[in-house]
C-alpha cells in the first residue's frame, strides 16, 4: 500500500485520469481549497473503455446522443447510474414517449432505429400513435440495447457521474462511482444528458434554477383488476374530494391511462404539486420527495378502493416507478438561452440543429399551445466551458421555455445533434464550439432530420402531450 498524501482536488483528478491507480492504492482527495475535511480514496476502479465521446445519462437524450455519435463512427461510451437505459420512458411504467413521430412522420434515423428495434419484438412491445410510442417498458429496455449494439456503442450501467476533470477551461473527463470504487473516464468530448446538468455543474459551468417555481415531481404507478369501462365511469375528482381528509397526500385529481397492449393502467399525475416544492438536486429534499411520493401512491390506491364505489373497489397496485420522475432542476447557461417567446412564436435560428414540438407544459401547472420552434447550436453549448455539450431537459432555456421541450422525442432530437457534434469535433480535432454549424446541419440532414420545421403551427389532437 502506498503512502497517503494530500493533494489538490483537480490535481488528484488529473493524475487519476492519466493513470488510474490499481486496487489497493491510497490517495487523499481534498474537496476544495478551503475545505478542512478530506476524503480518502482507498480503492480505484479500472474502466476498460477509452472513449473519444462520453455520453453521461441513458435517458431519451442520452440514447439519442449515443446513437448519433456511434452512428457517425466515433468510439462512444454511454454510462447510466440505473440498471437499464430509457430514463423516464422506462421507469414511468407505460407513459407514452411523446413527440417521437409528429404527424406520423419520421424525425430522424435515430428515432426510427429505436422504433425498429421495438417493432422487432411484436405487438406486445409497442403501439405507435399519432406522435407517440406506447411501450411495454421491459421491451423498451432491451430494444435500446439492441440499437446501441447495432451502432457499436459501448455502455455501462450502475455507473454514476460524481465529478468532472477540467483542465485549462476544458472538460477532459468524468469521475464515476462503481462497485470497484471511483474511476476517471477520459474523453475528447463529453455530452451531459443527466437531465439535472450534473456534469456541467461538477465542471463549474454556470447553471440556472428557479427555486420556488420548479415543476412538480411525480412517482408513476401501475394498477390492475379494473376494466376500461369501470375507469371511464369513475369520477376521480369526486373521489379525491371525499378522500382528502383521510388521505391528505393525494392530489386533487388524476387520470388512469391504459398500458399499451396490456390489461393494466398507469397514472402520471400532478405528484408533489399540492404537497410542496422539492429541489431534486438537494439530497434532503430529494429524499423527502421520493419518500412522500411512495406514501402518496398508497393513499391514492386506498382512496380509490374506499371511495371509488363498485367501479374501483377491487383495484390493485402492481408497482411503482424505479424513482420519481423529475420534470425540472438545473439547466446550463449556454451561448443562447431559449425563451418562452421563442416557443410561442415558433422562432427560427440560422444555427438550428433540432426542433421541439408539442405543448408548453409546466407539469400540471400550465398547459399552453406553442409552435414548433428551432433549437440553435448555441443552446447546447455552455457559455464558457469547452469540450462539453448538453442535451435533453438541461439545455440552455428559461424555466418556461424548458417546459416547452421536455417531451421525450424532443430530448432524443437534441441528444442526436449533440452526439453528432461531439463525434464530428473529435474527428476534426476541434472543440465543439469551433465546429462549423453548416457541416453539422449537413450531417443531421443525412440522418433524416428536417431542419425547416420551425414556425409551423400544430394541430391540438396530433400533438397533445
Write a brief caption for the model.
With 465 residues, the protein is α/β, with parallel strands linked by helices.
Describe this protein's structure.
- The chain is an alpha/beta fold.
- It has three domains: 44 residues, no CATH class; 302 residues, FAD/NAD(P)-binding domain, CATH 3.50.50.60; 100 residues.
- The protein has 15 helices and 23 strands.
- The strands form eight sheets. A five-stranded parallel beta sheet has the order 8-5-4-12-23. Strands 15-16-14-17 form a four-stranded antiparallel beta sheet, covered by helices on one side.
- α2 packs parallel to α13.
- The longest helix is centred in the middle third of the chain and has 25 residues.
- It is globular and about 65 Å long.
- It starts with 5 loop residues before the first strand and ends with a helix.
> How big a fraction of the residues is strand?
15-25%
CATH topology name of the largest domain, in short, is FAD/NAD(P)-binding domain
How much helix, percentage-wise, in residues? 25-40%
What would you call the structural class?
alpha/beta
**DSSP E strands, number:** 23
Q: Which regions are unreliable across 5 or more consecutive residues at pLDDT < 50?
A: 1-37, 461-465
> What is the name of the CATH architecture of the largest domain?
3-Layer(bba) Sandwich
User: Sheet with the most strands?
Assistant: 5 strands, parallel
